[in-house]
Amino acid sequence: MTVATGPPDAPNLADQASDWTAAYVHIPFCARLCPYCDFAVVTGRDQAAPRYVAALRKEMGMEPEWGPLDAVYVGGGTPSRLSPEQLGSLVDDLRGRFGLNDGVEVSLEANPEDWTPRLADGLREVGFDRVSFGVQSFDPNVLSTLGRAHTPDQAAAAVGVARRAGFRSINIDLIFGTPVETDDSWRATVDRALYLQPDHLSLYALTVERGTELSRAVAAGAPAPDFDRQADAYEVAEELCRAAGLVHYEVSNWARPDHGCVYHLITWAQGEYLAFGTGAHGHRGGVRRRNVRRLEAYLDRVEGGIRPVQGTEALDPWSREQERLMIGLRRAAGVVPGPGGQALLRSPWGERLKRAGVLGLVGGRVAVLRPLLGDEVGRAVLALQPGER
Amino acid sequence: MVVGIRLEVRHPEFERRGRLAASRPPVQCHTASFGASLNIRNFSIIAHIDHGKSTLADRLLERTGAIGAREMREQVLDTMDLERERGITIKAQSVRLTYRAMDDRDYVLNLIDTPGHVDFSYEVSRSLAACEGAVLLVDAAQGVQAQTLANAFLAIEANLKIVPVVNKIDLPAAQPERAAAELASVLGIDPGDVVLVSAKTGGGVDELLERIVRDVPAPPHRPDQPLRALVFDSYYDAYRGVVCYVRVVDGSLNDGDTVLFTATSEKHHAAEVGVLTPRAVRVPTLGTGEVGYLITGVKEIDRIRVGDTVTHAGQTAEPLPGYRDPRPMVYSGLFPADGDDFERLREALEKLRLNDSALVYEPETSRALGFGFRCGFLGLLHMEIIRERLEREYDLELVATAPSVAYRVTLTDGSVKEIRSPQDLPGADRVDHMEEPFLRAMIIAPSEYVGTIMELVQTRRGVMEHMQYLSPERVELIYHLPLAEVVFDFFDNLKSRTRGYGSLDYEPHDYRVSDLVRVDILLNGQPVDAFSTVIHRDKAFQYGKRMVERLRKLIPRQLFDVPIQAAIGSRIISRETVKATRKDVIAKCYGGDVSRKRKLLERQKEGKKRMKMVGQVEVPQEAFILALQVDVDE
Predict the structure, then answer these.
(1) One domain, residues B438 and B544
(2) Cα B156 to the center of its chain, rounded Å
(3) Residues B546, B480: one domain?
(4) Does B581 contact A at CB distance below 8 Å?
(5) Cross-chain residue pair A382–B581, CB shorter than 8 Å
(6) What superfamily does domain A11-268 belong to in CATH?
């Protein structure tokens, strides 16, 4: 029984998640570099995997005791580049050092082309019960533009394999607004994803991140994603998801009841989580911490017995309150107003956002009613001064 | 906006020495004043911009021993940074040179420097009023230009003896004979009388000095007449107060005299008189024909009027011709980009005005831009200089509204009003008719460009007065043009159409009845005062369309659709819409993204802080600046 019972957008779930605990483990290995990706990844370094796994386990040993954990999230990169044994050893270590609560969510990200019945069964055996597939699209044109290696059929097959292996919760990631995508192909992509009956769906607008191949291409004149077309795509998807019974519970996330992602819910509730691996970000004891991003630097530090921390950030109480709103308002459930929410509603910005139908008070909670304009609210929150009441 | 007219940066040495010297304790001069005005030569150098006036002045200083060559170089290096910012010639200066001529006699040469730009032609004429002669300088490669002529005319009007000089004969592209022939034909003299010099190498400078001594008349010798001295310039010194530059026309001015400033009727004590060599040298007396400085202890620059006549208290003397208020031609609103800087802007303007009585300003309030000042300038260059000084020397970030001119409005009740800001224009029902200022503009260019110049002038509502060939290759065109049309990028356009060969000079001419309207720009239904303009009806649509198109690109999308309209009264003449934002959210926000997202939003928020709210619309500061920018391409 997962801790995230009930509708994923339930206010009580949103609020309770701030007390849950999680661990994030980053696996940087990828077969190829996707042009839009700005995560900490490496290609052609799979032979370093055993050394890296050993380092991760060592890093877990360096983390002061904590837990037990409600969620484990193995992200990447491409965690499915590792063997079930390697991934299993990580879960075992987390269990051994921090403990795992009953009903813990143990999740990993996987690429469809890696996904075999053997891998799926192996992962189930070592304790994984949730998988998130980087499907991105069912349109071959979009897939090749995004530099993805799998075919639409491979993606569909992977979901079936995961289902048969007994994964409790299956997520599909899709990216919309790639300039080669048409309205029809997006609709078809969403239709096909929904036909596979995923428990969870993440829909991301293609974003041009600094330093990526995509940003260089755009700078050189390639078409950039069009925000209006992305808004159209989002609205189409919203409609289709609703019809399919998925609940829209965060800007980019939809889920069936009982399938809200525990790890994500913790993040949005400003909850705390450990983080291991290159470029991983943790949040513990009110301090946000980020690890070194480069693989070599990470390995050197950990193997030398030094924690691979790049930097930490401790926010003052008001900034924490602002952060609580900034991330909490991404959820359909919104936030308990608190001092920040009250200040927001009364600020000139809040007034404007209310008039424009972006911000509202729903059942005593502050909520963003037009999630596509969420950053307008985020900026208004950050503009609030501690004295404002 | 870009002003095509290059700022003339004069050799910094000149101004620096004059000013610093005057603020140092004066050295007592024991040599007797050159009482005999017979040995005095008062002259100016006049030239088109970049024809080498400052270099020639430096060379004269050097050749007469006023400044050693070594000293000059070192001083320039020492003070370059400071001077670069202050070196724009908008003020007249004077320096006294001592020269032993070929006839073995010593002469006092008072070189009265003049500003080099059409905006300051009034100052030029004041300086010329203190002289008997003028060195008219022409670049050997460029020949006679518009300001060459304009300056020559001023000199002739002032009854000055002109010493024609062709400069830069060392240039590879120099055509000294052609330039001399042009100059001779303009002045109606023999080309053989033109002195050829290279201020850069010093070639011909000796001959020029001889010619100054020979050709420029000595000032009239009237020592027994009641004192009359012309104040041809003044500047403010933080320690000594207002320092007047004076030319004694009649009688003599003595240290300790009680003097009367005729125009202001103010009596002051002559606390100190002296000459600039260029160091300030105190003298007991400035005799007839002499040029020097006068310090009275007055601290407020407003109380000394340049052009005023100084006489002795108790005497009655006919004032010298010369004084008139410097009249602003161009007005613009200056607003601090950060509203908190209003007081700093006020203080900066006060300080600038201490040395620039032509700068006028009064507080102005704009709904869009907040508190600022409506400022009047002599011309575009003057405006540009003031803005630049405010921004660079006083570290202010400014938003300037579109430059406008003073319109004369006759109301239906017969009264006449001068309008300096579009906001002040009464409703159309109260206006009988409006007049706008016209210029008389002189354009000189190679004849092959006549067609394109005529085309340009026609689009600017110009009316030709006449056209004449200065030589087979070069033509002079005289036009009457509305000032408002010249204020915007006219000179840039002229330069680009003539590949840089066209030159322009102008003077205010008259006011003419025009079909003028006010175009308002509305954001979300609210007029934005900063964008309103008074314009000829034929151009209103074009202006309105251009502004709404620009603003559509400059105004970021908002939470709602923003209509941008141009209107004459209640009639909408152009419209665009900034569509509402539909997507403004970061797609992902998971564990690792929280800090990053906060930093990104913080940065964006800082950008928003700099926006002004106009009719519920967020307008970035840049939109005001860019929308009001003049683009030659359009």
Answers:
(1) no
(2) 22
(3) no
(4) yes
(5) no
(6) Aldolase class I (3.20.20.70)
* Same domain as B394, residue B437: no
User: Which domain CATH number covers B583?
Assistant: 3.30.70.2570
On chain A, the residues whose CB falls within 8 A of the CB of B582 are 227-228, 231, 372
Of A290, A327, A356, the CB nearest to B589: A327
Whole-model pTM: value is 0.70
Residues B440 and B565 in one domain: no
Question: How far is residue A321's CA from residue A323's CA, in Å, rounded to a whole number?
Answer: 5
Any domain includes B247: no
What per-residue string of b and e applies to B433-446 under the rule 16 or more CB within 10 Å gives b? Answer: ebbbbbbebbbbbe
Residue A364 Cα to chain centre, angstroms: 28
Distance, in Å, from the CA atom of B399 to the CA atom of B396, rounded to the nearest integer, reads 10
Residue B296 lies in a domain: no
Nearest CA in chain A to B617: A352
- Would the pLDDT of B69 be above 70? no
In terms of domains, do B100 and B202 share one? Answer: yes
Residues 6+ apart with CB under 8 A from B121: B150, B154, B505, B507
Cβ pair B594:A378 closer than 8 A: no
Q: Coil, strand or helix: which one is B556?
A: coil
What span, in angstroms and rounded, lies between the C-alpha atoms of B232 and B243? 11
Cβ contacts of A283 on chain B, cutoff 8 Å? 591, 594
Sorted by sequence, the CB contacts under 8 Å of residue A232 that are 6+ apart come out as A183
pLDDT tens digits, A367-378: 999 999 999 999
Do residues B384 and B434 both lie within one domain?
A: no
Report percent pLDDT > 90 for chain B: 42
Domain residue ranges in chain A: 11-268, 317-383
pLDDT higher than 50, residue A100? yes
Q: What is the ipTM of this complex?
A: 0.91
CATH of the domain at B51: 3.40.50.300
B602 touches chain A (CB under 8 A): yes
Q: What is the CATH number of the domain that holds B427?
A: 3.30.70.240
Q: Do A207 and B602 touch (CB under 8 A)?
A: no
Say yes or no for a CB contact (<8 Å) between A204 and B590: no
Residue A382: its chain B contacts at CB < 8 A?
Answer: 598, 601-602, 605
Contact (CB<8Å) A373/B598: no
Q: Give the minimum alpha-carbon distance from A379 to chain B in angstroms, rounded to a whole number.
A: 5
Q: Which of A205, A282, A283 sits opposite B587 (nearest CB)?
A: A205
* DSSP letter string, B78-114: HHHHHHHHH-B--S-EEEEEEEE-TTS-EEEEEEEE-
B634 pLDDT exceeds 60? no
Quick one: pLDDT at residue B4?
Answer: 28
Q: Which of B588, B591, B594 faces A204 most closely, judged by CB atoms? A: B588
**Residue B99 and residue B199 share a domain:** yes
- CB of B603 within 8 Å of a chain A CB? The answer is no
Give which of A209, A228, A382 to mutate to test B binding, by max B Cβ within 10 Å.
Answer: A382
Domain housing B468: 420-514
Boundary-marking domain end, from B349, B378, B403? B403
3-state SS, residue A55: helix
What residue of A is the nearest CA neighbor of B605? A379
B591 and A263 in contact by Cβ < 8 A?
A: yes
Smallest Cβ–Cβ distance between A382 and the set B583, B589, B605 belongs to B605
Does residue B258 carry a pLDDT above 50? yes
**CB-closest option in B588, B592, B601 to A379:** B601
Residue B551 belongs to a domain: yes
Q: In B303-364, which residue ranges form alpha helices assigned H by DSSP?
A: 342-354
Query: Which of B215, B233, B257 is at the close of a domain?
Result: B215
Q: Which of B210, B205, B229, B209 is nearest to B219 (CA)?
A: B229
Cβ neighbourhood burial of A33 (10 Å; 0-12, 13-18, 19+): middle
The reply to whether B393 and B425 lie within a common domain is no
